[in-house]
Structure formats: structure tokens, C-alpha cells
Amino acid sequence: MALVVTLLGGESTGKTSLTRALCGHLAETGLAAAEVPEHLRHWCEQQGRAPHAHEQAALAREQARITDEVASRQGVDIVIADTSPLVIAAYSELYFNDRSLWSEALAWQRHVDLTLLMGLDLPWVADGFFRDSPAVRDAVDTAIRRELRAAGQAFQTIHGHGQARTEQALRAIGRRLGLNLTTTEPSQTSGRRAWNCEKCSDPDCEHRLFSGLIARNNTGDTRP
Question: Which candidate, 18, 214, 215, places its Cα nearest to that of 117?
């Protein structure tokens, strides 16, 4: 089985862009990387609408099935999945007040090798009926964090813009593989000194760090 990496987050958190960037870079290193697109988005494009409550479970299971199928293909080293059933479970709770999908989604997520949660530091961009608002994005993030923490599921939050974001994700993947996959040192990916705990998987620690960074930036303080 290939190493499975899932990117979690609500709308406009950069999951698709990061998925493509990671697959492109990993291929350049000689690793066979396979992309798993977001099934929910594909379904919405085909149907021309958002799913109803009774359709959510099937969509979540299909996302899991596709990811498992790609991971089992011969010759695939790494799978980068642009979402997981957890995101659909969050939408089900948010839109339909239905928490029934969390248990199955978390059970599947436990078998994932690396869970990366997209930070909320990217600007929200409208995208037709596929995206609602920054408030929805924040609510999805809150729900996913809550359930991952409650289940004791390790995850790492990925922050940064452009190449800095890609490099941070590559460092996380590289640690799982015992390889150096990045093209730059951590301190070269941004204008400030690398965070000492930037790469830990403690979500509370990460959240405090990111909140402090926002507060300093709002006061014009650019120190690390």
C-alpha cells in the first residue's frame, strides 16, 4: 500500500492547489505520486447542485473508496487526497444538523498515514455555488479540529502561502518517509525565522502559535 496523505479543510483553504503542487514536486524526486480529487466537487459539477442530506453518506464512502483504490494500485508510492470523508461529515453537521457521519469518517481516517489540516491564513475566494462564505470555512475548520482532537487523531496544520506552504507539507511527508523532500531550508521559505514548534502535531500548540502571529501582524510587528 502507498503512503496516504489527506488534506483537510473547508472551502477556499488551498487543498486542490497544494495537492497538485505536492504531486508535481514528488514526481520530480522520482516518487510515484497519485492525486485523488475531491469527489464531492465532481458530483456537484455533474449534478449542478449541492447534495441533499440523504446523499451525504454515499458521497463520503465514495471518497474513501476512491482513495483506497488508488492507494492499492501497483507502482504508486504516495497518494495525496484532496479531502476525506471527514470534510463531508463536517458539512453534514453544519448544513443538516446531522452528526451521524463522524464515526465512520473517523474510523477511516485512523488508517490514513498523514493528516494535514489546511490553515486559515489564505484569503477566501468566491467560487459560484461551491463556496458560501468565510464563516462557513471557519465553522468547518472548527468542527474538524474538534472531532480529530476528541478522537485522539494526530494531525498537523499547514500554513503559509505558495511555495512556503508546499515546503511545509513536504517536510511533514518527508519525515514519514525518512527523506528530505524540500528544496529549501525552513528559514528560507519565509521572511521570518522558522518557528521552533512549527512542525509539531500538537493542535493546541499550533493554534496558539498561529493566533500569536496574527496578533503581532495586526500591530505591525514582523518579528518571529
Answer: 18
Compute the Cα dihedral for 138, 174, 108, 14 and give only its sign: positive
| pLDDT digits 0-9 by tens, 118-144 | 999 888 777 766 667 888 889 999 999
**Residue-range domains of the chain with CATH:** 3-192 (3.40.50.300)
Count other C-beta atoms under 10 Å from residue 155's C-beta.
22
Helices (H) and strands (E) in the chain, counts: 8, 5
pLDDT digits (tens, 9 = 90+) for 179-201: 888 876 543 333 333 344 444 44
Q: Which helix (H) or strand (E) holds 91?
A: helix 85-96
3-class secondary structure, 172: helix
Tell me which residue has cell 494535514. Answer: 116
What is the rounded distance in angstroms from the CA atom of residue 17 to the CA atom of residue 102? 26
| Residue 99, φ and ψ in degrees, nearest 5 | -100, 10
What percent of the chain is modeled with pLDDT above 70? Answer: 79
The Cα 221–Cα 216 span in angstroms is 5
Q: Contact 36/20 with Cβ under 8 angstroms?
A: no
Measured distance CA(6)–CA(136) in Å, rounded: 20
Residue with cell 521572511: 191
The identity of residue 161, as a single letter, is H
Q: Are 80 and 35 in contact (CB under 8 A)?
A: yes
Longest distance between any two alpha carbons in the chain, whole Å:
52
User: Cell for 214?
Assistant: 496574527
